[in-house]
Task: structure prediction
Amino acid sequence: MNLFDKDGRLDLSRRLFLRSTGGGLLGSGLGLIGPAFAQGGGGSMPGLPPSRPTGRPFPEMEQETPVEPGRRLGWAVVGLGKFALNQILPSFGESRCSKLVALVSGNRQKAEQVASRYGVDTRDLYDYQTFDRIADNPEVDVVYVILPNALHAEYTVRAFKAGKHVFCEKPMAVTVEECETMISAGREAGRKLMVAYRAQFEPHNVEAIRKVRDGEIGALRLVTSDHGRILDPKDPADQWRMVKSLAGGGSRYDIGIYSLQAARYLTGEEPVEAFGQIANTKDDPRFREVEDRVAFQLRFPSGAVANLSSSYSTASVKRIQAFGEKGSIILDPATEYEGNKLALQTEKGRQEVKVKVKEQSQFAAEMDHFSQSVMNNHDPKTPGEEGLRDILIMQAIYQSACEGRPVSMEATGSTR
Ligand code: NAD
Result:
C-alpha cells in the first residue's frame, strides 16, 4: 500500500482509511505513525502520549534539582570587591542549596545598591563594626570571607564566635599561626570551615585528576604549572596586593597557590622538600614589599617532582601539565573562570578532551558543596587543614629562597 502522495506527503485518503480501521503504521509494522497521532488524539495505544495536555511522572534528570528555598542555607558575603561582585554574587543564581541573605561592606551606599539587585533586605546589611551582630541573625548559616588575605583570619574567628560556619577565600590566611587559630576557633564553636579552592570543583581539573588516578598517562613523574599576570597599580583590587601587611606576600600567595594546588591534587601527595627562587625587577615600585616572580620545585614521596611558578610581571598564563610514563595531560588554560581546556598527549598524538561543563559555575559548585557538607554534617573537600598545608609549603618556599637551599618539609611540619 502506498501511503504517500506524489510529493511525499501522507495521502489524506489513506489517513482516513487508517482512522476508520483504528489501525496505524505501527500496527502495520512500519513504525512511523501511531493511532494517537493518526486519530488526532485519544492515546489508546499504550506508551504513546495523548494529544490532550497531560502530566508525566518525574523524568530522569541530567541536573540535580534544587532544594526548596526554605531548606537552602543562608550565606552572608563579607567584602563587596571585584571578585565578590563579578563572580560570587551572580553565582548564587545557579546554586541549588545556598542563598544570599546578608552583606557586609564598609560602604553603605554600595551595600544598599547590591542588596536591591540581589533581593537582600536592608536589615541584613552590616559593616565591619556591626559585623558581630550577625550572631542575632538566624537567616545566616554561612559567612563567606572575600577580604584582603590578611583580614581572613579575623573575620573567620569573629564569624565562628557568632556561631556561623565559614567559607574563606584563598589563601586561607597569611601565616601558619593564623590558619591554626582559624581551625581551632571552628572546632571550639562546633562549626565547619572550608577554603575556597574552586579549581578542585572545576570540571576540566576534576577530569584531569581522574585521568591521572586511572593511570591514563601511566605513573605520574612530573607536574609543571605556571600562573602569571600583570599586577596593575591603578586597579584598586591590586593596590592592597602590593602591601605586605594586607596581602601576606606577592604572586606566590595570590596565584602561585594555583600552581601549588595543582601539584598537590594531581599527585595526590604531600611534598617532602621545597626549593624556591624569588626575583624582583630592581626599582619596580610594585615590588617594594611583596615578591614578583617565584620559581619553585617540590619533591614528593613517590619520587614525582613539580616545577612551578608564579609571576606578577609577565603576560597572563594559567597552565598545568602532568607528565606520566605513557603520556601527558595538558590544561591550558587551566584555571580561568570559564573556557578551560584539557588535552591528552600520548604516542597516538595530541587529542582535545571534551569535558561536560554543567550549567552551574565552579563557584556555585563549591558553595553548594559546603552547604551540603553543613546540612549533612560531612567534612568538606577542602577544609582549613588543606589551606594550612598550602601556607606551610609557601613558607618553606620562602625560607628556601632566602637561604638558597632546599628545605625539608618534615622540618617545617607541613606533613602533619
Ligand atoms: P578587592 O580589592 O576587589 O576586594 C576586597 C574587598 O575588601 C573590597 O570590597 C574592599 O573594600 C574590602 N576591604 C575591606 N578592608 C579593606 C582594606 N583594609 N584594604 C582593602 N580592601 C578592604 O579584591 P579581590 O580581588 O576581590 O580579592 C578579595 C579576596 O578574594 C582575596 O583573598 C583574593 O585572594 C580572593 N580572590 C579569589 C579568587 C578566586 O578565583 N578564588 C579570585 C580573586 C580574588
Q: What stands out?
A: Residues 384-403 form the longest helix (20 residues).
